[in-house]
Design goal:
five-stranded mixed β-sheet; 133 residues; mainly beta
Length: 133
């Protein structure tokens, strides 16, 4: 019985310690950052907005608006650090489909880039939604 009480107390301390360090954010409590801009044909654009991931947790990135060519497939990338410094992940993306998702272990500044892989013929106005801890 004393062993169980000791283990219980240790678990409470570990949980308290994790919470005080920021811990992991439940995805249902994520923040959504909306990024907008214009992408020109053949452009690889690092968006100027910094996304601050304040805890570990899960993230998703998707294009939520794309005009005048909503059927275009673009390359979306997540970078660690402001200004697209260290590549974290990239994938081809279409409108309203999750382009990137996964765990974030290291909190801090992240950035997004959007690139035309050679399919655009006119500039596109876009909106990207980033759900993050």
């Amino acid at each position: 019985m004393a062993m169980r009480a000791g283990v219980g107390a240790a678990l409470v301390l570990v949980a308290f310690g994790a919470a005080s360090c920021g811990g992991v954010t439940d995805p249902s409590k994520n923040t959504t950052t909306t990024l907008t801009g214009t992408l020109n044909p053949l452009e690889n654009k690092c968006l100027p907005d910094t996304i601050n991931m304040s805890n570990g947790g899960e993230y998703t990135v998707k294009i939520t608006a794309l005009q005048p060519t909503p059927t275009a497939t673009l390359l979306v990338s997540l970078w660690q650090g402001a200004g697209c410094q260290i590549p974290f992940g990239s994938n081809y993306a279409t409108l309203n489909n999750v382009a990137l998702s996964g765990p974030i272990y290291q909190k801090g500044a992240y950035s997004i880039s959007l690139a035309d892989p050679g399919v655009l013929t006119v500039p596109q106005n876009f909106t990207i939604a980033v759900s993050h801890p």
